[in-house]
């Protein structure tokens, strides 16, 4: 059968937001470039069949110190970092 969904995206100079809604659930994201050094993003997924999830991530660039930090955490408390 046919699966219907609706998707949208809005982009501005420093941020982007997306939303997809369908029969199985919804998925939303938001990305923001705060400045040349810091970027952050969030993601949320609601599913009719599975557990809802969300995640937060960041990237911090310190070029003068030759350092790049990336990290994330999700709603299951899974943490990632580099």
UniProtKB/TrEMBL annotation:
Keyword set, alphabetical order: Membrane, Mitochondrion, Mitochondrion outer membrane, Protein transport, Receptor, Transmembrane, Transmembrane beta strand, Transport
Coiled coil: none
Pfam families given in the database record: Porin_3
GO CC, alphabetical: mitochondrial outer membrane
GO molecular function: protein transmembrane transporter activity
Domain of life: Eukaryota
GO BP field: protein import into mitochondrial matrix
Membrane topology: Multi-pass membrane protein
Subcellular location: Mitochondrion outer membrane
Family listed: Belongs to the Tom40 family.
Name of the protein in question: Putative mitochondrial import receptor subunit tom40
């Amino acid at each position: 059968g046919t699966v219907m969904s609706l998707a949208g995206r809005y982009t501005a100079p420093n941020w982007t937001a997306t939303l997809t809604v369908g029969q199985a659930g919804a998925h939303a994201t938001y990305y923001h470039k705060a400045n040349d050094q810091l970027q952050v993003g969030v993601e949320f997924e609601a599913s009719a069949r599975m557990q809802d999830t969300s995640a937060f991530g960041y990237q911090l660039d310190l070029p003068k110190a030759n350092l790049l930090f990336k990290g994330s955490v999700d709603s299951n408390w899974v943490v990632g970092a580099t």
